[in-house]
Each structure stands twice: as C-alpha cells, then as structure tokens.
TrEMBL record:
InterPro entries: IPExxxVDY_fam. It comes from Winogradskyella bathintestinalis. This is IPExxxVDY family protein.
Amino acid sequence: MALHKLQVDDFIDDSYKLIAIHCRIEDYRLAYLLNKQLDLKLKRKEKDLDFKYLESSYSIFEWNNETEYIMWNLISNVCKREEDSLSSSGTLFTESEKVLKTFNLISEYQKVDYFIKISDEIQNVNEKLILNKLQAIPQIITSYTVDPLKIKSKDHLIF
C-alpha cells in the first residue's frame, strides 16, 4: 500500500511583494504620505501584531483594494520598549533605571523601519513604478524590494 505525504509547504503561496522602507517618521505620517503619493486608502488596524507573549508589538495599516484584487499592508519593523534594568541587590539605595530595548519583526533587516506587503492575486503590480513614487517622497531615505523567499522569519508576515 502506497503512502502519500502532504507537506505543509505545498500549501504556502508566496504571491506577495515586499518593499523595505528606511525613514524616521512616525507610522501614521508615513501612511498618510503613502495614501497621498500612491493613491491608497491605508487605515490602521485595531490590533497590532503581537509576538512573544506581548513582548513586542508592531503597528499595521491595511487596505483591501477589491476592484484590483490587491491587499496593501504597511508594517512597522521596529518596536522600542522601555523596561526596568536589572540591578544588583545589596545597595543602600534602590534606583530603578530604565533601559530602551529594540525588537525587530524581521530580524535579518534590522535597519529597515517599515515594510510594504503587496498581496496581489493577478500579479499586476508594477514594483518599479511604486519604488519611483516612494523615492519622490522626501521623508523616505530609501526603499527597495526584498525577496520574501530569502527571509528566514517570513512566518511573521502571515496575518
């Protein structure tokens, strides 16, 4: 009797494009500029992406363009959280020092501030045109495409 195995990877469909953005502005300002420049309608989702038992959370903006069958997502790659530092006991005075910890959604790209994930079923998105429009925004330092197949932590982009 022949055995048939189904691999989980057989059902994963990587039909999305990923664009990395380097800029130092707040997420809501970037979403506004993207809406204006690319003619999008990105809105912040009610719940952020949370990982490692609420250790880090990342803002996410989304727009489902139903006429062109394209889902647009703007995801923050950086989460900065202020935590109490560990101090040794036995001192006369207890001072609580705060330490700023930085977490990244995609750890391979620690310098990237935001990602744009474009999920298109028909494959009709012109990446070069989008990159040219992104470079026209003065607040964006640089932007470039990223191959999703080369990312080790691509599971973080499933939402």
